[in-house]
Design brief:
Phosphatidylglycerol--membrane-oligosaccharide glycerophosphotransferase; binds manganese (II) ion; transferase activity; about 425 residues; binds (2R)-2,3-dihydroxypropyl phosphate; globular; metal-binding; alpha/beta; eight-stranded mixed sheet
Length: about 425
């Protein structure tokens, strides 16, 4: 118990990355809208299928100088997929090595999650909008423990069959039909939208399809572009609403892809569309495909641009806290602010493989990022560096697991933090 916690506290203190003074508080007091881009991979950005941009609107955001756009941002999920991404983004702790943390620990654990932190430090109201059953991934329980004030699940939307795809309400309807609730949230708010239409197997009715599928021998690969295009249009419509309503100017919009849409086995079908050969495709290529978008859009900011630093989902919470002018130091978080000079650029995958700006390490194999070649005879210096990173990755993952498996945040109450009592939250008949 307490010696575990002391080791975790030592680690997080020594790993802490101080805010970049140029970035601290640049979005202070703004509303925060977080848009979860289901299964959206980085390769879609600027990608053209048969000469046609798949996601022109997201591309325009990516290149806007109001957006901090990350070119080397990776998903770090395990088997908990979407729920692991949510957990990392909102607690800066890792998902579990097996299963979903939301499902296994989410009902009973104590968390110090972003809805609670933003509320208690800065008066934010929080809400999640998601057109699937609230029980999926145990969200009904987890969100209460995170301190979400509102959770609008499928029961708040018109879910007649033609409004649905496999995992819930179609994205355009999710955004459109959430406005009536969004407009009633006390500001400043933090609102998360979890989209679902771009989810395997990427099925969408003809009426919503205006992009030509790819032509591989795998239907899901082909249709991935079609549903990604639909998601792009849904996002554009939502931005139009935000501008019309006036919310836009006072809101920071954070967008991220949660995990891959095309699995490693299916990458072999995708390879030719990326100008690669399936016969030389390898684990290095699979690892590079774990890049997902991470974009922070701050209207009127004008200082954005494409960021090259390496990072991942674990780093989002301290980054957002610092942008909002909130000190992240009191909390136990395993990620570091992407804008900090001390940001840790080693990206851990849940299986202990990792990527650094120069190397991709899979098991005992070191690949050089610039060439994709295996480093067959690493110098002593390189081997020492890699071993040190590997030790850190293993330690960080295991400390996160200890924290969560032993529910140690019960015993760690930051100054001025009031632990969340889930009994005070009720997601039935909200705003009715
Ligand atoms: C369902 C959705 C999908 O509610 O969030 O989760 P995933 O299958 O991607 O983990
Ligand atoms: Mn997902």
């Amino acid at each position: 118990g307490s010696s575990d916690l002391n080791e975790i506290i030592d680690y997080k203190n020594q790993h802490y990355a101080a805010p970049n003074p140029k970035m601290f508080g640049v979005a202070k007091g703004k509303n925060v809208i977080i848009i979860h881009l289901e299964s959206f991979q980085q390769f879609l950005i600027d990608y053209k299928l048969d000469g046609k941009e798949v996601t022109p609107f997201i591309n325009s955001l990516y290149h806007s100088n109001d957006t901090y756009s990350f070119a080397n941002f990776f998903n770090q999920v395990g088997q908990g997929k979407t729920s692991d991404a949510e957990n990392m983004l909102e607690t800066s702790t890792y998902g579990l090595p097996q299963g979903s943390l939301f499902s296994m620990l989410g009902s009973d654990n104590t968390f110090e999650a972003s809805p609670a932190i933003l509320n208690q430090t800065s008066g934010y109201t929080s809400a999640v909008f998601h057109g699937n059953a609230g029980s999926f991934w145990n969200r009904n329980s987890v969100y209460k423990n995170f301190g979400y004030n509102y959770f609008f699940d499928a029961s708040y939307y018109d879910t007649k069959p033609q409004n649905l795809t496999e995992y819930g309400l179609k994205d355009k309807l999710l955004f459109h039909d959430s406005v009536k609730y969004l407009e009633r949230l006390q500001q400043p708010f933090m609102a998360k939208f979890i989209t679902v239409s771009n989810h395997f197997p990427y099925a969408l009715d003809k009426a919503n399809t205006d992009f030509k599928a790819a032509n591989t021998s795998d239907e899901s690969v082909n249709n991935y572009f079609v549903t990604a295009h639909y998601l792009d249009q849904a996002l554009q419509e939502f931005f139009e609403y935000l501008k019309k309503s006036g919310l836009y100017d006072n809101t920071m919009i954070v967008m991220y892809g949660d995990h891959y849409g095309i699995s490693n086995t299916r990458n072999l079908k995708l390879a030719p569309l990326l100008g690669k050969s399936a016969s030389t495709w390898n684990k290095f290529d699979d690892a590079q495909m774990q890049r997902v978008p991470f974009m922070i859009h701050i209207p009127g900011n004008k200082n954005g641009g494409i960021q090259q630093q390496y990072g991942g989902e674990i780093d989002v919470l301290p980054t957002i806290e610092h942008l909002l002018g909130i000190n992240s130091q009191p909390y136990i978080q395993f990620g570091t602010d992407l804008f900090s000079k001390q940001h840790d650029q080693t990206v851990a995958f849940r299986n202990e493989n990792f990527i650094t700006p120069k190397y991709t390490v899979i098991g005992n194999t070191i690949y050089e990022n610039s060439s994709g070649n295996v480093v067959t005879h690493p110098s002593k210096k390189l081997q020492k560096y890699v071993d040190k990173q590997a030790d850190k990755v293993i330690r960080e993952l295991s400390l996160s697991d200890t924290l969560n498996n032993k529910n140690l945040l019960r015993f760690y109450i930051p100054h001025n933090f009031t632990p969340i009592d889930p009994k005070l939250y009720n997601y039935k008949n909200q705003m009715k």
